[in-house]
Design a protein that fits this description.
Blueprint lengths: L1 E2 L11 H13 L10 H21 L7 E4 L2 H12 L5 E5 L4 H12 L3 E5 L9 H9 L4 E5 L11 H11 L2 E5 L11 H4 L3 E5 L11 E5 L37 H17 L1 H20 L4 E3 L12 E5 L4 H12 L1 E2 L1 E3 L4 H7 L6 E4 L7 H16 L3 H7 L1
Helix pairs in contact: 1-8, 2-8, 3-4, 5-6, 8-9, 9-12, 10-12
The protein binds 4'-deoxy-4'-aminopyridoxal-5'-phosphate.
The site of 4'-deoxy-4'-aminopyridoxal-5'-phosphate has 14 residues, from α3.
Length: 389
């Protein structure tokens, strides 16, 4: 099987990730922070080490400002719902995933005003409109670091400079970039960073994280046992406990730790270079197919390893189905939980086929995928004809 769906979740994981999850369950399977015995302390240490490793990766000065979540969606919900009050306004972009869009719609139903900044048909942000919106001093800007539909990298550092000048909080959805693109929260002016642990960070599903600048207080979405201040029935107000209630996904975090260590050892730049090489090969191959339309930027600048395409006269779902059934190639078609982004690039009606290579893919696999797409394209609208005959 050729797996080209790394934007949804990376697979396979490094061998060390599988081993870390297994070993954690066997040897560190106690509840972290909830007992003084040796194995509970070992589990606590694991959380501590993982927090430190992630803080190092993202340029976070105080690792306690980073909390573990269950995925990026969880982190975004915690940030937005814990930050916004009725009467606030929030600025966002037209390229957002539903993890942001639906959360902001929920906030809107609770009296928050939402202002969506347009992007062009390749996914590039209208920076002038963004700057004007920031000058209105909204409560926050909530934006993705890179689109999961086109791979377009958004100008987060540029936005961060403006939000800093105006005292506006910048909340960044790094689901598609954490572990692959450089992220330095202080240098980029990021006040709140939400990320998945199971994508570029190479950890297991059920992991993610949320960083919050020490000057910002985010109300907890969930309260409960934290292992600290047990004499009180009130939630601790200090980080990370204020936002980490209930038993964490310790085995998942062990795997996440191994994923981060793999990235630090391999070098994030080397991982990105490999992914970009495969993406360049994919883009060149698709652009040579006359029936193919490719979305987003057509060069490798300002993009991640996500390539969306359609074939003239053919249904995106059918193409993905054929790739899966006839060629054992895994990809994702449709709207990718991002209807705003598809509306922006003009594919809301058709959806796209998305190929997202990862570090463990090979040039040969990309060539096989391109050969399969060429064959499907050569059938030239047969699905279309069959559907309407
Ligand atoms: N934002 C973006 C840009 C994404 O691509 C995704 C995952 N498709 C998410 C948020 C949600 O991530 P998770 O599945 O980890 O909640």
């Amino acid at each position: 099987m050729i797996y080209l769906d790394n934007a949804a979740t990376t697979w396979p994981k490094p061998e060390s990730v599988y081993q870390a999850v297994d070993q954690c369950l066997r040897t560190r399977g106690a509840n972290p922070g909830r007992g003084g015995h040796g194995m509970a302390r070992a589990a606590s240490l694991l959380l501590y080490e993982t927090r430190e490793a992630l803080a190092e990766l993202f340029g976070i000065a105080d690792a306690n400002q980073l909390v573990f979540t269950y995925n990026a969606t969880d982190a975004i919900s915690m940030a937005v719902m814990g930050l916004a009050d009725p009467g606030d306004s929030i600025v966002t972009t037209s390229m957002e995933h539903n993890a942001v869009a639906r959360t902001l719609r929920l906030a809107q139903s609770r009296g928050v005003t939402i202002h969506v900044i347009p992007c062009d048909s390749t996914g590039q942000l209208d920076m002038q409109a963004m700057a004007a919106a920031i000058r209105q001093k909204p409560k926050a800007v909530v934006m993705t670091h890179a689109s999961n539909v086109t791979g377009t990298i958004m100008p987060v550092a540029e936005v961060g400079k403006l939000t800093k000048e105006q005292g506006v909080a910048l909340v960044v959805d790094a689901a598609q970039t954490a572990g692959v693109e450089d992220i330095h929260v202080a240098d980029m002016g990021i006040d709140i960073l939400a990320f998945s642990g199971h994508k570029g960070l190479l950890g297991p599903q059920g992991t993610g994280g949320l960083y919050i600048h020490e000057a910002i207080t985010v109300r907890p979405l969930r309260v409960g046992g934290t292992g600290s201040l047990s004499e009180s029935d009130l939630q601790p107000e200090f980080m990370p406990d204020s936002l980490e209630s209930g038993t964490p996904n310790t085995p998942g975090i062990a795997g996440l730790n191994a994923g981060v260590q793999f990235i630090l050892q391999t070098g994030q730049a080397a991982i990105r270079a490999k992914e970009m090489e495969l993406t360049g090969q994919l883009l060149a191959g698709l652009l040579a197919i006359p029936a193919a339309s490719v979305y987003g930027r057509l060069d490798l600048l300002g993009r991640t390893a996500v390539v969306s395409f359609t074939l003239k006269g053919q249904d995106s779902g059918q193409i993905a189905h054929l790739l899966d059934q006839q060629y054992a190639i895994a990809c994702r078609s449709g709207l990718h939980c991002a209807p705003w982004a598809h509306k922006t690039i003009g594919t809301l009606e058709t959806g796209t086929v998305r190929l997202s290579p990862g570090y463990f893919n090979t040039q040969q696999e990309i060539e096989q995928a391109l050969a399969a797409i060429r064959e499907i394209a050569a059938q030239g609208g047969f699905i279309h004809e069959r559907d309407f005959s």
